[in-house]
Amino acid sequence: MFHLASSLYDRFSRREQYNILILGLDNAGKTSLLEHLKLVYPGPGEKKKPGERDTTQILKSKRILPTVGQNVTTIRYSTQSQPRHAVNLKFWDLGGQRSLRNMWARYYSSCHGIIFIIDSTDTERFQECYDTLVDVTRHQSWRDEAGGPGPGHDSVNVPILMMANKQDLPAAVDLVSLKTGYFIDLVSELDASDSKLLPVSVLENQGIRESLDWLVSRIVYNKTNRLPEYR
Ligand code: GDP
Ligand code: MG
After folding, report:
1. pLDDT value at position 146?
2. Are the beta carbons of 202 and 169 closer than 8 angstroms?
3. What is the pLDDT of residue 26?
4. Domain count, the chain
């Protein structure tokens, strides 16, 4: 009885926590996104929000080095439609160089959602980007967990937010062209699972809030399949 009461207490007094992987090729903007989140959102224990800052200037003046290990940060977040329901989001920025990508799969079983960042100006690597995302979604570990292949169980079972980043640059390919051109097969394939491709500029703080709102609402919706942690 005591155990039941204390676990119920834990459940209601602690906050739900979700793990989100930030994936994508190197130079897509993964670490910039993480740095942006750190600047804008409070940590789990922080009372006050730092408020909207001019993250553009701060990010531009930072020298962000290619990620070798992993960068992790946890923020407190509530969507604009549910401002009273705050959750903790723990973001993992894993290195995107080819040699580091095979590490990603280790994190699949404990993640609740994926952000896949695309550099919308890097047309030369769109194919590589496409192949990389397909590899993620078709990875064996999603299947193992679902108890073997079968209808509805042969693919990724967490929401995927694809961010078409660097939309501030003139050379950026716009969303419609991405959806109907380079990424058309992927978009239609992923349509069956929970995914969305949205335009953003991490550097100019455009589209980030909207895309995170989408991701968080889908992650919370999926919480009976992927139970949150409580912190
Ligand atoms: P990562 O390798 O995926 O972690 O990418 P980084 O975060 O290190 O960013 C790679 C480069 O892209 C850096 O020079 C960033 O300043 C730049 N970058 C990231 N996001 C944007 C963006 O939205 N717009 C522009 N113009 N540059 C960006
Ligand atoms: Mg990086």
Report:
1. 55
2. no
3. 93
4. 1
> What's 202's domain CATH number?
3.40.50.300
Report yes or no on 89 lying in a domain.
yes
Task: Give pTM, 2 decimals.
Answer: 0.89
* Cα–Cα distance for residue pair 197/216, rounded to 1 Å: 15
Quote the Cα angle for 195-228-140, to 5°. 55
Dist. CA 104 → ligand 1 center (Å): 20
Q: What would the pLDDT profile of 164-190 be if each residue is shown by its tens digit?
A: 999 999 999 999 999 888 888 777 777
| Pocket of ligand 1, beta carbon within 6 A | 24, 26-32, 64, 66-67, 96, 165-166, 168-169, 201-203
pLDDT at 7 over 70: no
Query: Which domain range does residue 216 map to?
Result: 15-230
On whether residue 6 sits in a domain, the answer given is no
Distance in Å, CA 163 to ligand 1 centroid: 13
3-state secondary structure 100-113: HHCCHHHHHHHCCE
Helix (H, G, I), strand (E, B) or coil at 75: strand
Mutate to test the pocket of ligand 1, among 27, 58, 63, 120 (most ligand atoms within 8 A of CB): 27
How do 16-24 and 87-94 pair as beta strands?
Answer: parallel
What's residue 224's pLDDT?
93
Determine the residue of 64, 97, 118 to mutate for testing ligand 1's pocket, defined as the one with the most ligand atoms within 8 A of the Cβ atom. Answer: 64
| Residue 3 domain-assigned (yes or no) | no
